[in-house]
Design brief:
mainly alpha, single chain, 76% helix
């Protein structure tokens, strides 16, 4: 055993064990680790926003830009001040203007980004040939079956969410196939999530056994 004498390693080990102690029950050590995590995350985000957003884009922009590029920065500065009015009860209503502008702008950018970055590429990815010709027969059969499953899964899942007609007869059978594909997709997503969490757990256990206790 080669225990580390680095005080920061001991702090990290204490916080790691404190968070893991929640597996037993809610306790004071978990609450300490939780509050430190939330507080440090908030402080990090505040510093990050200042050095990567407010200072370079607003402060430095107003100091070094000229013309319209300089004076137009007054608008985001005023909106930011309006946001802070939320904490002053008599003029708290002013913050609604900034919030409404932010929500509207975020919705517009989010819809555009969703369409261009997710929806349209997903639709294009389903326009697949049902038969893939290739020099290797087995590979051609594999790719063709893969494309056929993709098309069947996409169409049957869409039928499952088609509520303008009662799900009876052929529509019901196709929608049941869609449910199967949806459940497989949910299961794969859940599996990836579990794998990611297990990877984090392995990393923390390795830290405790290697960096802290020096057992491995």
């Amino acid at each position: 055993m080669n225990i580390s004498f680095n005080p920061w390693v001991w702090v990290a080990a204490f916080l790691t064990l404190s968070m893991m102690s929640f597996l037993y029950k809610d306790n004071i050590f978990y609450k300490i680790g939780e509050h430190i995590y939330v507080g440090s995350s908030a402080a990090f985000m505040l510093i990050y926003l200042w050095y990567f957003d407010v200072k370079p884009k607003l402060v430095d922009g107003f100091m070094y830009n000229t013309g319209i590029n300089k004076w137009i920065l007054i608008i985001p500065a005023l909106l930011s001040l309006f946001m802070l009015m939320r904490f002053i009860r008599p003029v708290a209503w002013i913050s609604r203007w900034a919030i409404a502008f932010t929500v509207g702008m975020g919705s517009g950018l989010g819809i555009t980004g969703l369409l261009q970055g997710f929806l349209v590429p997903q639709i294009k990815a389903t326009f697949l040939p049902l038969y893939v010709h290739g020099s290797n027969t087995l590979m051609s059969i594999y790719l063709s079956l893969n494309n056929i499953l993709m098309v069947i899964g996409t169409l049957s899942a869409i039928v499952y969410f088609y509520f303008s007609k009662e799900h009876t007869g052929p529509v019901k059978k196709i929608s049941q196939v869609g449910i199967t594909f949806i459940m497989v997709a949910f299961g794969a997503s859940f599996g990836y999530t579990v794998m990611a969490r297990i990877s984090l757990l392995i990393g923390r256990v390795y830290f405790l056994l290697h960096n802290w206790l020096g057992l491995v």
